[in-house]
Amino acid sequence: PWLRIFERQHPFRELAAESTAGTERDAQAIVFGLGRYGSRLFEQLHADGVAVVGVDFDPEAVRALRARGLPVLFGDGEDPDFLETLPLRQARWVITTFPQWESNRALLHALQAVHYRGRVVGAVRDAAHGRALAAAGVSQVLNPFDDAADHAAARLAHDIHQQETST
Hints:
Elements: H1 12-19, H2 22-25, E1 29-32, H3 36-47, E2 52-56, H4 59-67, E3 72-74, H5 80-83, E4 93-96, H6 101-113, E5 119-123, H7 127-135, E6 140-142, H8 144-166
Parallel strand pairs: 1-2, 1-4, 2-3, 4-5, 5-6
């Protein structure tokens, strides 16, 4: 009992070593944040054959994706100790879908602390968040609202033009 104060409360490295499967060790990309947008992005990358690992702090989100056989981990993306347990040396892409700038800033600092050298992509909800990520050195910024509208407009324009030429 006297030594308990020296024990780590969350032994991330040990837990990760016990639960890491081969596909998680060979990850090309790691997606942080598995909410509506992040989980869809993660699932599509996985379906497209990308060796991707998902990370979230919500145990229910992790449990639901694991139940479907997807490689997901429970953990805090803002914690450098947890990041050390991830296959960041192999992963060339880190994708953050955290909605708050503060969480993204903490993740970027944690990635620097573990000397991550790959590309970082960030999804944003507004232009100010996008500017902050770009200024922090994020290599690519995704805006789900703009990207979805651009994609929808391109599909609709194609269908409209196709209908016009067939009549």
